[in-house]
Specification:
The protein has 313 residues and is mainly beta. Helices cover 4% and strands 45% of the residues. It has one domain (25-312): Beta Barrel (Lipocalin), CATH 2.40.128.630. It has 2 helices and 25 strands. The strands form 6 sheets. The chain has an 8-stranded mixed sheet. A 6-stranded antiparallel sheet has the order 5-4-22-21-20-19, covered by helices on one side. Strands 7-8-9-10 form a 4-stranded antiparallel sheet, with no helix packed on it.
Length: 313
C-alpha cells in the first residue's frame, strides 16, 4: 500500500482537543508519500465585498461583509482548496504544490502535510473524518487519515465522455454531499470544456482492513454517475454546506460563487471582489473561508451562511 505514517510514539499536546503533534516531525516514508508538521503564523485583517447576481449574471448591489481576518500570506503558496474538519475543529487548505496546511479557526497554522501532486480539491467525510484530496493533471482522489498520516485508498477518475482533455483543465474542486440513497458521495468540479459538477460512483464505505493486501485494493476506478453545468464557463472550487444543503461552486474566471442543490438547481449567485478565488468552505458559525490563489492569501469572513440562507429561501 502507498502510505506515509506518523510514529505512534510521537508526543502530542494534550491541551489540543484534536491531539495533534506540535513541532517539526519527519515521518517514516513508504514509497513516494511524504508528510511533515510545522507551527503557527500570525493573523492580519482586511475587508471584502460580495455582490449577489441574478441568474443571468447582472450585478444587483454591493453587499459589504464584516471585517475579514486572514493568516499571513506566507502560510500557503497558491492556495487552491479548503475544507472544514468537524471532528478536529480545524480548516484544511491545499496548495498547487501538493501541500496541505491545517489551520485553527483563528487562522493560526497547526500542521503541514505533503502529498506529491497538483492538489485542487479537499473534502472531509462527515462520518469517518477521513480527508479526501483531489489531483488535477492526473485526475485521482486520495483517501487520507490525518490522525496517523496514512494514505488509505486512491480512486482514478475514468471519464471518457469528457475527452479530449486539457491536462490543466480537469478536477478543480471536491465535495462530499448526500447521494441519491442518502449516503455520502464524492462530487468533483470539472474546470472547463465542459465546466461541470459531477457525482462519482466511488463507494466510500470504509474498507474492511488496512493495509491493503494488494494494489487492486488500493487503486480503484471511479466513473461519473451524473453531472450538471452550474453556469460559469470555468470552475475553480467546490464545497458542500450541510446546514443549508447547498453546494458552493467557485469560478475564478467570473469571480463568482454559485449556490445550488447537489442535483443542480441554482439558488443564488454572488460576485467576489477578489481575484483568483480557488477554494471555499463554510465554518460552523456561518463564516466562510475563501482562498485567493494569486495573492497567497486565505480569507476568513463573517456571515456568509446567513446571506446564503436569506437569498436561497
Amino acid at each position: 500500500m502507498l502510505a506515509a505514517r506518523l510514529p505512534h510514539s510521537m508526543p502530542r499536546d494534550r491541551s489540543d482537543p484534536g491531539g495533534r503533534p506540535k513541532g517539526t516531525m519527519k515521518p517514516r516514508l513508504s514509497r513516494k508519500w511524504t508528510l511533515a508538521c510545522v507551527l503557527t503564523l500570525p493573523v492580519a485583517a482586511a475587508l471584502l465585498t460580495v455582490s449577489p447576481l441574478t441568474s443571468t449574471g447582472r450585478r444587483l448591489r454591493a453587499m459589504p461583509l464584516d471585517l475579514l481576518r486572514q493568516p499571513a500570506q506566507a502560510t500557503v503558496v497558491e492556495p487552491s482548496a479548503a475544507a472544514y474538519h468537524p471532528n478536529r475543529g480545524t480548516v484544511l487548505v491545499a496548495s498547487d504544490e501538493g501541500l496541505i496546511v491545517e489551520l485553527s479557526l483563528s487562522g493560526a497554522e497547526l500542521a503541514r502535510y505533503e502529498l506529491a501532486g497538483d492538489l485542487e480539491g479537499l473534502a472531509v467525510h462527515p462520518e469517518t473524518g477521513l480527508l479526501y484530496a483531489a489531483f488535477e493533471q492526473d485526475p485521482r482522489i486520495l483517501e487520507f487519515d490525518l490522525d496517523v498520516g496514512e494514505v488509505l485508498r486512491q480512486w482514478c477518475v475514468e471519464a471518457p465522455e469528457l475527452a479530449p482533455r486539457d491536462p490543466n483543465r480537469q478536477i478543480e474542486g471536491l465535495a462530499i454531499a448526500p447521494g441519491p440513497n442518502g449516503s455520502p458521495a464524492l462530487l468533483i468540479a470539472w474546470e472547463a470544456r465542459p465546466a461541470l459538477v459531477a457525482r462519482l460512483d466511488a463507494d466510500l464505505t470504509p474498507a474492511r482492513s488496512f493495509p491493503a493486501d494488494n494494489t487492486n485494493d488500493f487503486n480503484l476506478p471511479t466513473r461519473i454517475a451524473s453531472s450538471f453545468a452550474p453556469g460559469p464557463p470555468q470552475l475553480s472550487g467546490l464545497s458542500y454546506d450541510p446546514p443549508t444543503g447547498l453546494l458552493l461552486v467557485l469560478s475564478a474566471q467570473d469571480r463568482t460563487i454559485t449556490a445550488c442543490t447537489p442535483e443542480g438547481a441554482i439558488r443564488a449567485r454572488y460576485r467576489l471582489d477578489i481575484s483568483k478565488p480557488e477554494g471555499i468552505c463554510l465554518l460552523p458559525d456561518g463564516d466562510a473561508v475563501i482562498c485567493q490563489e494569486d495573492k497567497d492569501t486565505i480569507w476568513f469572513y463573517r456571515g456568509f451562511r446567513g446571506l446564503l440562507a436569506s437569498d436561497s429561501d
